[in-house]
Amino acid sequence: MTPDITGGGAWQALLDRSQAARSSQMRDLFKSDPQRFNRFSLAAAGLFLDYSKNRLDAGTLDLLLTLARERGVEERRNAMFGGGKINSTEKRAVLHTALRAPRTSPAAVDGQAVADEVHAVLDRIRLFTERVRSGEWLGHTGKPITDIVNIGIGGSDLGPKMASQALRTYHHPRLRCHFVSNVDAHDLDAALHQVDPATTLFVIASKTFTTQETMMNARSARAWFLQHGNQQQLARHFVAVSTNIRAVEEFGIDSANMFPFWDWVGGRYSVWSAIGLSVALMIGYEGFRQFLDGGFAMDQHFISAPLEKNMPALLALVGIWNRNFLHAASQSIAPYHQDLRYFPGYLQQLEMESNGKRVTLDGKTVTHATCPVVWGDVGTNGQHAYFQLLHQGTETIPVDFIAALRPAHGIDGHHRVLLANCFAQSEALMLGKTAAEVEAELSGQGLPPEQVAALVPHKTFPGNRPSNTILLDALTPASLGALVALYEHKTFVQGVIWGVNSFDQWGVELGKVLAKNIEAELNSDRGSQSHDSSTSGLIAMARDAARSLG
Ligand code: F6P
Fold it and tell me: Which of 121, 168, 170, 390 supports an S-S bond with 283, CB 3.0-4.6 Å?
């Protein structure tokens, strides 16, 4: 049974406290405590988290920590690492952490240690990636591979695409990678126009190997290849990553060219598995291992640090405070690093597919809000698009700023400006600008009083808007691994507090089923029945358009 979380002692006390917090000003909290930055920040696994720019004081934090304990966060965490079947609706263990653990890891599912099979696959990834990167693995005309096309969707795309882009500066100079996910063939078409069939390796990445988009793209890619090479030569150009060996073989990929993983790895947690093959191909096995090590370092921190000093737990609790007590309905992610441009999209799946739920583990409708909408874009671009709303809109939207202290490029001056903007945005969101400050400034510029009065409301910033800042020393495979694991564990902690199953995703099913029916109707001359008038009307329009194309 999951007791109603809002009925617990800490929840009620936090509710009481949130009344006062709504009127408290962060600028006053900073003024009254010169140690605030030190008190509300910490380092772990090579990352630094500053959460001081939140409407939070020591008493609130204590209550949030009590809430985490009341909700059994530590016990659930231990159950996850211990291989417990915490994904109860699918009766599965949740052990993506075992993918980044060393060979000596005791992680087990159903009493069976998993380290040997995990490392056997890693060994195969090492051998394969070395062969491709060295030029020993040849395409059907005898030339080395130049292009990797990863065909997958959701977790089989977002993770490898994000990590591969983030680690762009580590790429092998001969290799380019492309990610095809959308069933809209403009995606595949664009990729195929950039590659040569003789030097292209397709990685078909799908946990189930049944996902409509991926299988359709894979079949079309295979048909395209077979216009240039024959069935036997396919083996040099198609490999698969999946848990479904039978479907892979049925597709025509030899099991020798298949990299397996396991049902205890959720799709959105799978970049650490062979789903990361394209990342390993691009940055090399050593780099991939460092990525895993970064994730492992965060795991070690998460499992051993007390909640008071536990980075994922604190990040999660600040999020709970903002979501459930200060009613922030969305969470913006602002990486001040161009190479992290796919990170907000990656977190959308991680957090929203995990915690976008409205029933608790025991099937009761929640009486509290769960996952906020997660969105964002890189700084400084976002500043010139939607930051206006962050500063002066009617919603309070917490922002996670993410930046690296050292850039990977050597172009003078830019990084200083980038970091200055990053820090200035969080300062501006926190500080705001009072009407009195605006008035003094405009009067000082010699504006007549009536103009000052007219402009003051427009130029006033309410401030008091929360943000976290996460600093990496540099964006490396290890720091990226730690960053991804930080957000995974944050998501986990929030899911435990909200009492939901963070590891299923039934909400994606209904649309898939309906799409199958509609696709059949689009493909036949029968009139469409049993739909609402809107859906029937849209189907009719698409049919007419298809007919007019012949
Ligand atoms: O439809 C959602 C989903 O199941 C995701 O959870 C998953 O990452 C994605 O589809 C792709 O699934 P697969 O790897 O099995 O193709």
Answer: 170
